[in-house]
Design a protein that fits this description.
The protein is mostly helical. The protein is built from 13 helices and two strands, in the order E-E-H-H-H-H-H-H-H-H-H-H-H-H-H. Strands 1-2 form a two-stranded antiparallel sheet. Strand 1 and strand 2 form a beta hairpin. Helix 7 crosses helix 8. The longest helix has 25 residues. The radius of gyration is 19 Å and the shape is globular.
Length: 291
């Protein structure tokens, strides 16, 4: 493999594509990172490359303020996906993903669908109802769940349903955690019809008013997220449980996060609830050990 250049505070450091992806995953501090630390090397390399791909395109949607520039950058990634499957990837992430396309069935349609989801963030800042939001969640999380399940390995087709619902549960958890932060950026993922039902206006997602109504709204959101975890676990065949442990680790971490948000009294309008790295690592180890 070639070398990827990464400029750091200490100067230029040259990394191969796998090292670049590893650094992207480690820097994020995501629960995803903790969930695949226990995998065999080949699967760990593949899932780390997939995660790095998601980080690259997600950062464009989140950090590039000029919509035209962001669309252009996502267009570049679409071209790079084509390069990957044509056999001449240019970016360290797609170089690292090349092995995963051959060994684990990562395909261009699904990678482009993830980009489709990121592109929605450039133009869709409101969702009328949950059916509309579900399309977004499928693209940015359900597809990632399915690709991840393929890398981890499974024998039963229903495990794909498990992976889809688990991905949706993760995304719904993220939406709950980031309510205030997203609203301040002009993005409201809570469906408009549900805001209306609970008597909460978009502006009230960033101010501490209507505490009772807001708590009821968030209790509803948490219940729906938990229902997707239940649906996911019900679809996971016992034969596939061992190979799908990374997803179960992430689910344990995310369910702990939901419980923490609830225990804190849904302070998500003004702060971002998170788990410490050591707690995430402990949950990961415990889930892996229990089987």
């Amino acid at each position: 493999m070639g070398l990827a250049q990464n400029r750091t505070a200490g100067g230029n450091r040259y990394m191969n594509p796998d090292q670049y992806c590893q650094q992207r995953a480690a820097q994020s501090g995501s629960s995803f990172y903790y969930s695949f630390r226990f995998l065999p090397q080949d699967k760990r390399r593949a899932i780390t490359a997939l995660y790095a791909f998601c980080r690259e395109v997600d950062d464009i949607a989140d950090d590039v303020t000029d919509v035209g520039v962001a669309r252009s950058k996502l267009g570049w990634w679409r071209a790079e996906v084509a390069n990957l499957f044509a056999g001449h990837p240019q970016h360290p992430v797609t170089m690292a993903l090349r092995d995963a396309t051959e060994r684990f069935g990562v395909n261009p349609g699904q990678l482009n669908e993830i980009i489709d989801g990121m592109e929605m963030d450039l133009s869709h800042h409101r969702y009328s109802d949950f059916d509309a939001l579900r399309i977004y969640c499928h693209r940015v999380a359900g597809v990632v769940g399915q690709l991840s399940a393929g890398i981890f390995g499974y024998r039963h087709d229903k495990t794909r349903d498990y992976a889809e619902n688990l991905g949706l549960a993760f995304q719904l958890t993220n939406i709950i955690r980031d309510v205030g932060e997203d609203a301040r950026r002009g993005r409201i993922y809570l469906p408009a019809d549900e805001l209306e039902r609970f008597g909460i206006s978009p502006d009230e997602l960033v101010v501490s008013s209507k505490a009772t109504e807001f708590r009821h709204l968030m209790e509803f959101q948490v219940a729906r997220a938990r229902s997707h975890y239940v649906t996911a676990f019900a679809a996971l065949h016992p034969d596939d449980r061992a190979t799908q442990k990374p997803g179960l680790i992430m689910a344990a971490i995310y369910q702990a996060l939901l419980a923490e948000i609830e225990r804190d009294g849904f302070l998500v309008r003004n702060q971002r609830t998170s788990l410490t790295p050591i707690r995430k690592l402990w949950i990961a180890w415990r889930t892996w050990s229990l089987g």
